[in-house]
Each structure stands twice: as C-alpha cells, then as structure tokens.
Specification:
seven-stranded mixed beta sheet; 17% strand; 14 helices; binds nicotinamide-adenine-dinucleotide; alpha/beta; 12 strands
C-alpha cells in the first residue's frame, strides 16, 4: 500500500465536498471514523515461542445501518490503511444502496509464514478481542486480502461460542456448508465483469475484439480474468505478487487457473512469457483491471498506462494524482466503489439469508447481483454525464450525499 491511503481517501472526500458544497464541519464528521479499535494478538507459534501481532477494526460510519467490511491479513496493515478502506466501504455501501455503513479490519501478518493451526489461533484471538464491537446488527466482517471462507468460519465459531448460540449473521463470505451464500465466492469478480462489459460498451469496444491485462490473480483478479475470458476478451497479461506473464496472442485462463492450483503462482506458466509488474500495468491493451493492492497506479507511471478503460477490481489502486493524469488523457476510470461492489452486494444477500435462515439458488443470487450492478452503473454513468464529472467523482458524490442526508436527518446526539 501507499503510506498515504488515508490522505488519498480524504482528498476524494474533498472532491465530493467541492461538488456538493457541504460545510467543513460536515467534512470533518465524514472524514473521521466513528470508532477505531487497536488490539494486540499474542500468539503461540508451533515451536512454543510467543509473538505479538497487531490488529485493527475501524468502523467509519454506522449512520445508514450496521458497519460492513473485510478483514485483511497482510504484513503492511496499519491503522491508516484500515481507516482508508473503512471509509471506502461507507461510500460503496451507500452507492449500492445497501443498508450499511463502512468498516474494515486487519492484522499485520504475512499468512504465508504461518501454519493453518497458527492462522486459526490468530483469527480466533483477533475475533475474541473485537467481539464487543461486532455482531449482525453492529458490524459484519468479511474476507479480504489474505483471508478466506475458512477464516470466516473460525470468526463465526469464536463469536458464537462466546454468545452461547450459533450466530450465522455475524460474518459473510462463510462456507456454503455454514450458512454462506451461493455465488459469494465469485461475486466480486462477477461484479467486475458486469461493470467492465458496461464500460467497454460505453467506450465502443466489442469484448470479442478487446485485449485486457489483469493485475492480481487472487479472489478478485482470477475470477475477473476467467469471466472476461469466457466473454471472449483476449487476456494478454496477468500477474500476482511473484511476477507476471504476457502473451500477445492471449493467455489460456482456464489452463492458467489449473497451473496456479498446482503451483500457487502464475510464474512459470508455460503458455506465456515472463513479465514484470510494470509490463502488466503498462501493457498495450484496451482494458486494465488492477485487482491486487492499493496505490499501484501513481503519478510516476500513470502517463505510461495505455489501456483506454481501467476498471478498479482492487480498492484504491489509483492515487488521486494518477487519477487526474488518466482523466486528462481521456481514459475511462471506473472507480473501486462501483467496480468491485459485487462482493459486498452478495455479502448483503448472505446476511439477509443468514438472518432469515432461508437460502437462495445461485441463479437467484446472480440475477439479483446483475440487476444491482447494472442499475448502479446506469445511475453513476447518467449522473457523470449530467454533471460533467468523472465516474469516480460522480460515484463518490452520489454516495457521500446519501450518507450526509442520513446524518442530517438523524441529527446530533445529544
Ligand atoms: P487475494 O489475497 O485473494 O489476492 C490478491 C492477489 O494480488 C494475489 O494474487 C497476490 O499474489 C496479488 N498481489 C499482491 N501484491 C501484488 C503486486 N504488487 N503485484 C501484482 N500482484 C500482487 O485478495 P483479493 O480478495 O483478491 O483482493 C484484491 C483486491 O480487491 C484488494 O484491494 C481488496 O481490498 C479488493 N477487494 C476484494 C474483495 C473480495 O471480495 N475479496 C471485494 C472488494 C474488493
């Protein structure tokens, strides 16, 4: 991540303020988190030694409903990163009209260096420390970088044991066997696909004659690459944290998925040539999907981005300075709070199903997801056209306006 992800998030809020004209006091209320918790996580390693990890849960806003947001396990997690991501979640939930505020959590740990038993202990202790501030009506965590449905099962179990009964609605992104939703695992990628197809249509590009580069081959990037491949898009470049691949004739994504299942990384895939991270971002393609981490498109490399359409699978991949450069160059940048909202939409569906103990079919989930994503695209696109704004500013303004209206209707306590 960049060191100033939180500063970047606040700059985006200032841009919304410039359009909406709200007061500095209102800006301050929106820029500050509602609640921030930092916890120590003492853990015993398999060799008997002890280690202290640091975890966070930030609830940026709870005005429109319980807070909602993922939990990240990554080595560089810090409070400012979590604050920034929590704020983005508030705007994302508002933009998609979900009855939630925004939150985010994280533990500064590199999961690759820990066994499954150790990761279970870390997850359970982190959960135990934040039990007082989470719950189906308070704050509902979900997976993010470095966490998955297994972590969610442990979180749900830890919370439920503490309460004395099973509470399925406390987290989303759970395994299907434990109250998870059909379609949740692929939902962020499915949403990225829906939005990317709408963006290509707006740019006058036919998916079957479109080339794309995807940065990140994890939960979001891999599915996005696969769905776009299935739509006929030629994926010529992909990467993960270990390195990149290029093949101007197109990479066989299903074969790459099989390779990654076997080896754990894209590097070494025989159907493409090795490439650097810069090659992936600056590839000569029509569509770029950054789906890895924050702050990868910067003032330094933005002018070298060749893609006409950039669809942000990751949260915060473009700095505000880079965003200005891309906009000035006539690129279409579809912001994270719209492009990757499919995950939180299906998390919302999962929460509704868990709370009602009534589960929907995959078809029902995917149909409802498509309706929500398409309608959010229509709203943002129309607003951007009407006001002459970039898609990012339009999306942020729409989201912030709803949160501000809710604040003002509720008034101040006491
Ligand atoms: P993940 O841990 O499953 O995958 C991350 C991928 O990025 C991995 O392939 C990793 O190797 C790769 N990566 C890391 N650093 C990289 C680098 N410098 N260059 C290239 N690749 C790199 O995480 P994820 O859940 O796929 O999340 C990716 C992004 O999407 C994050 O910004 C996350 O906040 C965002 N997001 C995730 C979800 C979700 O439902 N999982 C929802 C919305 C947004």
């Amino acid at each position: 991540m960049t060191n100033n992800a939180f500063e970047d998030a606040k700059k985006q809020l200032r841009q919304a303020q410039a359009v909406l004209g709200f007061s500095d006091a209102e800006y301050d209320q929106l820029a500050n988190s509602r609640r921030e918790v930092a916890v120590s996580i003492p853990m015993r390693r398999h060799d008997g030694s002890r280690e202290i990890l640091h975890g966070y849960r930030v609830q940026h806003n709870m005005t429109r409903g319980p807070a909602k947001g993922g939990v990240r396990f990554a080595p560089n997690v810090d409070l400012d990163e979590v604050r920034a991501l929590a704020m983005l979640m508030t705007w994302k939930c508002s933009l998609l009209n979900l009855p939630y505020g925004g939150a985010k959590g994280g533990v500064n740990v590199d999961p690759r260096n820990y066994s499954d038993h150790e990761l279970e202990r870390i997850t359970r202790r982190y959960t135990a420390e934040i039990i007082p501030i989470i719950g189906p009506d308070i704050d509902i965590p979900a997976p993010d970088i470095g966490t998955n449905e297994q972590n969610m099962a442990w979180m749900m179990d830890t919370f439920s044991v503490a309460k004395g009964h099973t509470v399925l609605g406390v987290v989303t992104g759970k395994p299907i066997s434990l109250g998870g939703s059909q379609g949740r695992a692929a939902s962020t990628s499915r949403g990225v696909e829906v939005i990317a197809l709408r963006a290509l249509e707006k740019a006058g590009l036919d998916p079957k004659n479109t080339t794309a580069s995807v940065q990140g081959f994890g939960k979001v990037g891999r599915g996005a690459a696969r769905f776009l491949f299935d739509d006929g898009v030629t994926i010529t470049a992909v990467s993960d944290m270990y390195g990149g691949l290029v093949n101007p004739a197109g990479i066989d994504i299903p074969a790459l998925e099989k390779f990654v299942d076997e080896t754990g990384k894209v590097v070494g895939f025989p159907g493409a040539n090795p490439a650097t991270g810069d090659d992936i971002l600056e590839a000569d393609v029509d569509l770029l999907v950054p789906a890895a981490v924050e702050g990868v498109i910067t003032e330094e490399n933005a002018a070298r981005i060749k893609a006409r359409v950039i669809v942000e699978g990751a949260n915060g991949p473009t700095t505000p300075e880079a965003d200005a450069i891309l906009n000035a160059a006539g690129k279409m940048v579809v912001p994270d709070i719209l492009a990757n909202a499919g995950g939180v939409v299906v998390s919302y569906f999962e929460w509704v199903q868990s709370n009602q103990s009534n589960w929907w079919s995959l078809e029902e989930v995917e149909d409802r997801l498509r309706v929500r994503m398409n309608s959010a695209w229509d709203d943002v696109d129309a607003y951007a056209e009407e006001k002459g704004l970039s898609l990012r500013t339009a999306a942020t303004v729409m989201a912030v306006e709803r949160v501000l209206a809710a604040h003002n209707m509720r008034g101040l306590f006491p």
